[in-house]
Write a structure and sequence with these properties.
The complex is a heterodimer of chains A (158) and B (456). Helices cover 13% and strands 32% of the residues of chain A. Chain A has three helices and ten strands. A four-stranded antiparallel sheet of chain A has the order 3-10-8-5, with no helix packed on it. A four-stranded antiparallel sheet of chain A has the order 7-6-4-9, with no helix packed on it. The longest helix of chain A is centred in the first third of the chain and has 13 residues. Chain A is globular. Chain B has three domains: 100 residues, Rossmann fold (3-Layer(aba) Sandwich), CATH 3.40.50.20; 68 residues, ATP-grasp fold, A domain (Dna Ligase, domain 1), CATH 3.30.1490.20; 250 residues, D-amino Acid Aminotransferase, Chain A, domain 1, CATH 3.30.470.20. In chain B, 35% of the residues lie in helices and 27% in strands. In chain B, β2, α2 and β3 form a beta-alpha-beta unit. The interface between A and B is medium-sized, with 26 and 28 residues.
């Protein structure tokens, strides 16, 4: 048998709705390993059951079923935090290339994403000079005030 | 529609209270918190927490867009505004309506009608609810003429909002112009609406309000009245139900008047109509309608057995009143003390800080609604309410005895509180006799100051 992206999305939902942090599944030689990101269990236990119209513009893809990238534990990294709660977008419009990607060099005023609140687009700037080391917030998802969207390594370029 | 997940757009004890009813109903909860409330007790009681902004309420709990976005982004069907903050903002309710989020409360149009004090006065008049002599102020000349008809003393009040802001007491005709100017400036700053009206000042009156539930199609039931006359600077600190020692038949007339008012609005949800009661003259006057859950709702719950938050949710999800007119059965008496973090020694200034330890009362007929436990930080950004102690008894004397015991049992270390004041009021023979007016607490406070000076 083969798994479709839809199946994987459903399996992901199973994990999201459960009280477990990790799920390993083996079907006919196909291995899936899902793990929650660092969010507290209570928070992760209720992922939205309904997708907001905003979020629907960028439909969840199978990419969401891949394990969330482990966060890099490096105190030198500078977090870029969400200046307000809203829906985070990495690109100016659906299908367009992202404002920045991993490894991109940014200046303090480089736009790294937008946060939409009630149809109002708020640009998020890097606020520091360096290289994009991690992108933590997922495209089209709700980010909280103060949540780390991405991190910047100020040592590169040195 | 059925409601599966509710965004709680509030904090403190009322967030805890709303979360409790939701849990009993099997409804998931998302709590919108400011940065200062991430580790609060309600944040641990809900299904999920989202941070909507920094500590200052103006950047978090007073941000309609952030709250509606948080509700949408977390898949909530409905939003409970609690009391205070945005709970009575018609624009906020409208934003929820526009985005398909059920606002657990009245419609935006009803909020606008109840919030405009002049419109509310006009409506009260229309349905034959008595008003204190007064009227709106179009010009200074008109105001002088109106003032002469009303007589002194009178109150200058803001049409756009309550809470004592934009309100001025005028005792001499010569002071009217100055008071109007000051009130207009205050009201303009506080409510963005400088319209004023005048009302006769009733110096010896009781504050009695009627708890209502409306289904939104004109059916309204009442859950009895509450007496909230123990106030300091328009802030209630003790409330009770039923109102003790009203003239014969007056409670029924208050209930009827409140239901006529809300019925004409086809009011939806829980609401309260406030009256000034002049017991000596056997008269009452319409004050305003509070179109939300009240802080003091637990006393009504204690005697009626109705979970008012659950009733709000039922109405919002289209289940109607579940309680026919006249069906409400009330038993005994309940009294509530609001325990605030404020320092009586510094004229009741707020006393934020870290609560080192706390002991809340426990026992038969006692209820405590609170978000405060050992280690709770009371932030300086919000109101100072730490919790509400409610005692229920078979009659007033019974409830009072239980409340005295409950307050004596309570200990809060780390922040100053008004516990000692509550103990004094509950021990005072005048309060024990029942039926004090709104001038009672200021009088008692003066006596306390005088006694302190004598002993010092």
């Amino acid at each position: 048998m083969s798994l479709t992206a839809r199946d994987i999305a459903q399996i992901t939902r199973l994990l999201e709705d459960s009280s477990f942090d990790e799920l390993q599944l083996e079907i006919d030689g196909l291995k899936i390993h899902l793990r929650r990101s660092g969010a507290p269990a209570a928070a992760a236990a209720s992922e939205p059951a309904r997708v907001s119209p905003e979020a629907a513009r960028t439909p969840a893809t199978a990419a969401s079923a891949t394990p969330a990238p482990a966060t890099v534990d490096d105190p030198a990294l500078i977090p870029v935090r969400a200046p307000l709660l809203g829906t985070f977008y990495r690109a100016p419009k659906p299908g367009a290339p992202p404002f920045v990607d991993l490894g991109a060099n940014v200046e303090p005023d480089t736009i790294v994403g937008i946060i939409e609140v009630m149809k109002l687009m708020n640009t998020v700037r890097a606020g520091a000079r360096g290289m994009v080391r991690e992108i933590r917030a997922r495209d089209g998802t709700l980010v909280e005030y103060g949540e780390t969207l991405l991190t910047i390594d100020p040592r590169v370029p040195g | 529609m059925s409601i599966g997940r509710i965004l709680i757009a509030n904090r403190g004890e009322i967030a805890v209270r709303i979360a409790r009813s939701c849990r009993e109903l099997g409804i998931e909860t998302v709590l919108a918190v400011s940065e200062a409330d991430r580790d609060s007790l309600p944040a641990r009681l809900v299904t999920r927490v989202v941070c909507i902004g920094p500590a200052h309420a103006s950047a978090s709990y007073l941000q309609p867009e952030a709250l509606v976005q948080a509700a949408l982004g977390t898949g909530c069907d409905a939003l409970h505004p609690g009391y205070g903050f945005l709970s009575e903002r018609a624009g906020f309710a409208r934003l929820c309506e526009q985005h398909g989020i059920v606002f657990i409360g009245p419609t935006s149009a009803q909020l606008a009608a109840a919030g405009d004090k002049l419109a509310a006065r006009a409506l009260a008049q229309e349905v034959g609810v008595p008003l204190a002599p007064g009227g709106d102020v179009s010009s200074q000349d008109a105001a002088r003429e109106l003032a002469a008809r009303i007589g002194m003393p009178l109150l200058v009040k803001a049409a756009g909002g309550g809470g004592g802001r934009g309100m001025k007491l005028v005792e001499r005709a010569a002071d009217l112009d100055g008071a109007l100017e000051l009130a207009a400036a205050e009201a303009g700053a506080a409510f963005g609406d400088a319209r004023l009206y005048l009302e006769r000042f009733i110096s010896s009156a009781r504050h009695v309000e009627v708890q209502l539930l409306g289904d939104g199609t004109g059916n309204v039931v009442h859950l009895g009245e509450r007496d909230c006359s123990v106030q300091r600077r328009y802030q209630k600190i003790i409330e009770e139900t039923p109102a003790p020692g009203l003239p014969a038949g007056m409670a029924g007339r208050l209930h009827e008047a409140a239901m006529r008012f809300a019925g004409r609005l086809e009011y939806r949800g829980a609401g309260t109509v406030e009256f000034l009661v002049d017991a000596a003259r056997d008269e009452f006057y319409f004050l305003e309608m509070n179109a939300r859950l009240q802080v003091e709702h637990p006393v009504t719950e204690a005697v009626s057995g109705v979970d008012i938050v659950a009733a709000q949710i039922a109405i919002a999800s289209g289940q109607g009143l579940r309680l026919a007119r006249g069906e409400s059965h009330r038993e005994g008496c309940a009294i509530e003390c609001r325990i605030n973090a404020e320092d009586p020694a510094r004229d009741f200034a707020p006393s934020p800080g870290l609560v080192k330890s706390v002991r809340w009362p426990q026992g038969e007929g006692m209820r405590v609604d609170t978000h405060v436990e050992a280690g709770t930080r009371v932030p300086p950004f919000y109101d100072s309410l730490l919790g509400k102690i409610v005692a229920h008894g078979t009659d007033r004397a019974h409830a009072l005895a239980r409340l005295r015991a409950a307050v004596a049992m309570t200990r809060v270390e780390g922040v100053a509180t008004n516990l000692a004041l509550h103990a004094d009021v509950l021990a005072d023979p005048e309060f024990a006799a029942g039926g004090v007016d709104t001038a009672y607490l200021p009088r008692l406070l003066q006596r306390r100051v005088a006694a302190a000076v004598q002993h010092g």
